[in-house]
Q: What sequence folds into this?
C-alpha cells in the first residue's frame, strides 16, 4: 500500500504561476549512482509565469522547454513566454487522443488511468520517441517538460526517464504520487483567479485528477511484461540506445 508523501521543498520549485514544477534529480539508482539535481524538471502549464517565476527559471539555467500538449491546448491555454525569457521552446504533442471521461465512471473507473497510460504508450509511440530524441540531445539540458497539469503525459515521461536511469520503482511511483499535492494547490488557486475552470475540474470524475501510486506501478509492470522494462520499450519505438547510454552518463553521478 503506497502513501502519498508531501512534496519536499528541495524537490519542488516554488512558483507563483505553476504548481507542479519539480526537480527529477536526487533519486538513487540500482547502479549506486544518483540522478543529478538541476538537470531535468517536470511541470504543469507554464503560460502563467510571473516575472519572479521567470527569474527563478533563468536561475535554474533552463535551456529547453518541451510542451507535451496538443497544438490546440497550447493555443487556448497559452505557452511558455519565450518573448520574456529566451529558451528553446518545442511544442511536441505526446499524443492527440481525446480523453473519454465516461470510461472513468462506474465499475470501470479503477481501470481508467491504467488504460489511458498504456494507450499512450502504444498509440503515442511516435510522440514519445520525439520527446526522448529532444531530451537525449547533448545540448538540451537543463530541460523541463510539461503538459496541462503535469500528471498524465508528464508523469508518464518522467516514469520512463527514471526507470531507464535505474531509479527504484518505489521512488518512481512516489514521484508520480507527489502530483496530488500540487493538484490540490492548483485548484485552490483557480477558485480565486478562474472559478469557472475550477468548477469544471471539480465536475470531472475523481479518478481523472488523481495520481495514485498503484496506477503507475501497474504501468511499470506492463512495461516489464511487454518490453522488459522502460529501456526495452524505448528501444522498441526507435530511441537510440547509444544515445540513452550517453544520457545516463550525463544524468548520473
A:
Amino acid at each position: 500500500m503506497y502513501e502519498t508523501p508531501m512534496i519536499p521543498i528541495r524537490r519542488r520549485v516554488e512558483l507563483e504561476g505553476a504548481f507542479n514544477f519539480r526537480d527529477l534529480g536526487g533519486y538513487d539508482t540500482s547502479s549506486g549512482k544518483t540522478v543529478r539535481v538541476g538537470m531535468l524538471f517536470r511541470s504543469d502549464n507554464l503560460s502563467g509565469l510571473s516575472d519572479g517565476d521567470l527569474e527563478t527559471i533563468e536561475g535554474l539555467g533552463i535551456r529547453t522547454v518541451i510542451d507535451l500538449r496538443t497544438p490546440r491546448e497550447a493555443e487556448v491555454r497559452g505557452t511558455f513566454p519565450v518573448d520574456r525569457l529566451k529558451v528553446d521552446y518545442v511544442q511536441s504533442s505526446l499524443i492527440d487522443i481525446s480523453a473519454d471521461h465516461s470510461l472513468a465512471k462506474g465499475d470501470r473507473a479503477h481501470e481508467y488511468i491504467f488504460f489511458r497510460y498504456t494507450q499512450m504508450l502504444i498509440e503515442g509511440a511516435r510522440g514519445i520517441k520525439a520527446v526522448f530524441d529532444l531530451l537525449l540531445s547533448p545540448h538540451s539540458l537543463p530541460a523541463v517538460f510539461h503538459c496541462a497539469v503535469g500528471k498524465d503525459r508528464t508523469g508518464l515521461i518522467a516514469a520512463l526517464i527514471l526507470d531507464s536511469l535505474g531509479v527504484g520503482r518505489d521512488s518512481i511511483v512516489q514521484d508520480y504520487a507527489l502530483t496530488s499535492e500540487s493538484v490540490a494547490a492548483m485548484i485552490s488557486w483557480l477558485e480565486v483567479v478562474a472559478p469557472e475552470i475550477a468548477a469544471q475540474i471539480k465536475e470531472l470524475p475523481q479518478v481523472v485528477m488523481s495520481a495514485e501510486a498503484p496506477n503507475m506501478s501497474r504501468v511499470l509492470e506492463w512495461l516489464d511484461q511487454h518490453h522488459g522494462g522502460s529501456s526495452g520499450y524505448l528501444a522498441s519505438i526507435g530511441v537510440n540506445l547509444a544515445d540513452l547510454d550517453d544520457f545516463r552518463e550525463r544524468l548520473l553521478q
